[in-house]
Every structure is written in structure tokens, then in C-alpha cells.
Known about the structure:
Radius of gyration: 18 Å
Helix content: 25-40%
Mean pLDDT: 95
Number of helices: 9
Strand order of the largest sheet: 1-2-4-3-5-6-7-8
Structural class: alpha/beta
Distance between the termini: 37 Å
Oligomer: single chain
Shape: globular
Strand content: 15-25%
CATH class: Alpha Beta
Amino acid sequence: MNAEPKGNYAEVNGLDMYYETHGVGETLILLHGGLGAIEMFGGVLPLLAEGRRVAAVDLQAHGRTADIDRPMSFESMADDVAALIQGLGLERADVMGYSLGGSVALRTAIQHPELVRKLVLVSTPFKRDGWYPEVLAGMGQMGPEAAEPMKQTPMYQLYSSIAPKLEDWPVLLTKLGRLLGQDYDWSEDVAAMAAPTMIVVGDADSVRTTHAMEFFELLGGGKADAGWDGAGMPNARLAVLPATTHYDIFFSPTLAPTVAPFLDAPMPETG
């Protein structure tokens, strides 16, 4: 029987971070995409909460979490997630993120490996050129000048219904634009990660399919036949959801059934 959803604020690194808990059991931290909020996961969240406790988060300047006077960076938001895990009194938690939230989840595992049990990255590159060129061009248009036209989008409709300060909408677009314009390549960090990790992309995603394969291989997957008994199975998993784009994967009915068996499986033996 699932517990009723509960909304709370946690003070982390000067930020009053909003989060909701759904369900009971092993904790999964769930992180939304850029310009989104907890609500973007729609029916996926209750499906994930059927077998575990989901702590779904509104990241800096998103949803019900008000912005503070600091730049928006993957690294600082990862520190926020780590502080939340510790604030919840957990030794470790599973972490799952989509797009922007996936990058934050990845940085959390890199910067705070002792706090992350398993990692699920949905539509997430490990370096900036993992996105298709036309997607990068679109990111280049993100900034204060986009604030007014973006008010016609579902993202603003959600923001305007829950944000504590509506006047911060242009600030969010400005900070997010600066973040998305920065180059990065975390391949060395990824290759050194120990947490069992699942990569999930759509077959028509904004993240290049070949990049997802490269990501999987960096994690130790795709190297050899696993054998009749599966003894050569890597700790990494790769899932490509059919007929799925970057813009519908986060509420796809196939997402939770794809991810849940990975989260539910016993931790691999070490040593």
C-alpha cells in the first residue's frame, strides 16, 4: 500500500528545495528536465512509486523551488541533490534524471559516489556534442529574449501555476541559457564510475543514438558476448524505447516498466 504523496521543503546550500515523496520502500530521487517540474513525469511517477519511495525534486529556479543568487550549474545542483539525500537521513539512494535532471543525476554520482546506489539517466549525454547539432542550435536561442515567446508554451503554463515568483521566469531562461551554452566532456569521470547505471533514450531522441552507445561502452557495456550463463553481463544497461522522442519519453508508459526491473534487481557483487 502506497503512502499518500507529501510535499516538503529542504534547506540545502542556501536553497529552499521543494520535493515530494510518493510510495514506500527503497528511495529513488527523481529529477525533471529543463524548464520543467515534478509534474512533467505525469503518470510515470505513480508507476515508479508502486515498488519504492520516490522523492521527486524541483531543481533550482524550477517549479516550487525559488531561485537564489548563484549561477545555475550541473555541479551545484548535484551538490543540492547530495545534501537532500543526506537531509533525508539516507546512507544512499537511487537517482534517476531526465535531460537536465539526468545531467544533475550524473554529476551527483560523479561528485558524491558514496551516496548513489544505482543511477538511471534518461535522454542524457555525457558531453555536449552528444546532442544533435540542430538541438544545440536551439539551446543557443535560450536566453532572456525568449522569455516572452516562451509564455505560449506548456512549460510556462506549468511554471506560472506553481512558481513562487513569476517575475523570475526571464531569470530562469537566462541562467539556463548560460548553462546550456557551456561545453563539457565528462567521459573520464563516467569511465571511473562504479554505480550500476542504466542509459535510456528514445529511438528518435534529441541525444544521438550513437552517443548513447558510446555512453554504454564507457560504462563497460557492449564489450563482449555475455555467454550462455550471463557471466559476462556488465553492470551497465542500455534501453532504446521505440517510437519515442525527447519530448514524450518522460511520460512514456514504457519508461517505468523499463526502469523498474533494473532498480529492483539485487546489487551486483563486488570484489
